[in-house]
From TrEMBL:
Protein name from the UniProt record: Competence type IV pilus assembly protein ComGB
Gene3D superfamilies xrefs: Type II secretion system (T2SS), domain F
InterPro entries (UniProt xref): GspF/PilC, T2SS_GspF_dom, T2SS_GspF_sf, T4P_ComGB
Keywords noted in UniProt: Cell membrane, Membrane, Transmembrane, Transmembrane helix
Domain of life per record: Bacteria
Record's bilayer topology term: Multi-pass membrane protein
Subcellular location: Cell membrane
Keyword Membrane: yes
Transmembrane segments: 118-136, 156-189, 319-344
All copies of domain Type II secretion system protein GspF, residue ranges: 24-136, 220-342
Keyword NADP part of the UniProt annotation: no
Gene, per the UniProt record: comGB
Family per record: Belongs to the GSP F family.
Amino acid sequence: MAIYLKRFITNHKPSLNNELQLRFLQRLQRLLSKGYTLLAALEVIGWDKQMTLIAAAITESLKKGHTIDEAFEAVSFHQSITTYLYFIRSNGDVPGSIRKCIEMYEHRMKYTQKFQQFARYPLILLFVFSILLYFIKQSVLPSFVDLFHTSAEASFTVTVSMMIIDILVFLVIVMFILLCLGVFIWRIIKEKISIEKQIKFYNTIPVYRHFLKLQISFLFATHFSSLLKTGMPFKEILLHISRQNKIPVISHYSKKMTEELTKGFQITSLLSQFSLLENQLTAIFQKNADVEALEKDLSIYAELLTEEMQRKIIKAITLIQPIFFLILASFIIFVYVTLMWPMFQLIKTI
């Protein structure tokens, strides 16, 4: 069924871009808040020609008995959206889960747009500079070799400059190929590698490891707090989290905790053992014996983590341009020296 729906959507409508996904969720949340049932809300959304096929496919999937996350996944909604919708199976909170999806996806789109804005001009400059460097390497520097053949030092400087440019271009090409090859290979072998080895690999990547730790802690706190509202005991909550396969790290951690809880261990002693969970989570569980207080603290902690991730992402994005401009300035100085230094050497010989 899911395969049929994906083919149906792919063959009959434009690609489901980020803006369309967000607008669909916003309309669905607005209609649900006005008292519409899920199916009635989807019918109203279908009045928009751009969303007719999407709403129809999701409605058909729901009527066939699929869960809401499976229905949205079948029409190619982003994985981060379907991850939130998965937990509706347990908490039954459709409006709340969709509201969280909207908040999360708005942040995602905001930072994607910011990154594109900050990266646009450096990429344009890189393209222009690459053309300039190619022109200098192919036309200007060979002319300098002929011009300065009477000066051994000047001719040697130009030759060395040409070699350095060749080496730099070669290194950039090799690094780009290795990066693409590494990403391609990782996507192929990722499913074949155990989650323990994946976690060890993530821990070897300094910057990515830190962001992933914040994200995993945020998702664990968010989903644990939402399931606490249903009155489930800890063990049942962990079972529900472990059954989802959209966030493998959290699923793995939840399975480990479920096994240890069965043996009589406390959850506070288990959280500190996981490298991709913040230590503050352990402190929160140790502090609160009351379920309501724990749910409240986890919700607040998830909000704080959201703010922390936003701050760090913006900081990382704003560093892109200065770093790139510094590198580009270094290359420009190199080109300037390459062109001027042989002239100074030739003048000395006069």
